[in-house]
Amino acid sequence: MSGNARRAARIKICGLRDAATIRAMGSLEVDEIGFVFAKSRRQVEPETAASLIEEVKQMNQPLGGAPKTVGVFVGASLEQLRELLAIAPLDVVQLHGDEGPELCAAIRDEFGKEVWKVFSVSGDDAAGTGHDRLLPYEGRIDAALIDTAGGGTGQTFGWEVIPRYAASAKTIGVPLYVAGGLHPGNASELLEQYEVDGVDVSSGVETDGVKDIEKIRAFVERVKA
Fold first, then answer.
1. CA-CA distance, 103 to 133, in Å (whole number)?
2. CB-CB contact of 164 with 196 (8 Å)
3. pLDDT tens digit string along 165-206?
């Protein structure tokens, strides 16, 4: 690898709800596929997720292996996770609420799943002072994700804070994903300006609230280029 080359960011496509779209994504270089269990217009039931996870396992990725499956939760208890994971065998539990380090560690220990923690970025974080929120999670999470406050807004946050969060993620030894308002039109801009480990997109690859395979394909091509 040359001194100017860098590894392409990982791609997570979130909010999948139908098997047809997953099948159409089979030839794309997607690293993670997310299912939303929190209250949302993209919410899926555990039984539906279980069948969709089976579809993901059949995907023929260009580099081999199937994408990881990620469940998005807000404020779920250990008991709720226990019941859901018994039905839908996810690879990753993504926590989008106010879950603390102790709960993250408990989920990792009990279920043996990767735990990703989402940190919302608001205007108050413009100076980058909030990035130290990652530090108490050292050894308790497997990835950090920063998103626009409120989540699922389709709006970007001030990207100038990314380097500070990236430094904190590096300190605790986890990859940093960026979400919030990403789409095929701005993915290249983000990755040209900032070095991040992964990107997470949902509404930015939809048309009228439905996943659009052409937009997904365009997003993947822009990120992996």
1. 15
2. no
3. 999 999 999 999 999 999 999 999 999 999 999 999 999 999
Q: Which residues contact 218 (CB under 8 A, 6 or more apart)?
A: 184
CA 196 – CA 189 distance, rounded (Å): 12
Pick the CATH number of 10-224 from 3.20.20.70, 3.40.50.11030, 3.40.50.970, 2.30.30.240: 3.20.20.70
Question: What is the secondary structure of 30-97 as a DSSP string?
Answer: --EEEEE-SSSTTB--HHHHHHHHHHHHT---TTSSPPEEEEEESS--HHHHHHHHHHS--SEEEE-S
Taking only the tens place, the pLDDT of each residue in 31-67 is 999 999 999 899 999 999 999 999 999 987 766 789 9
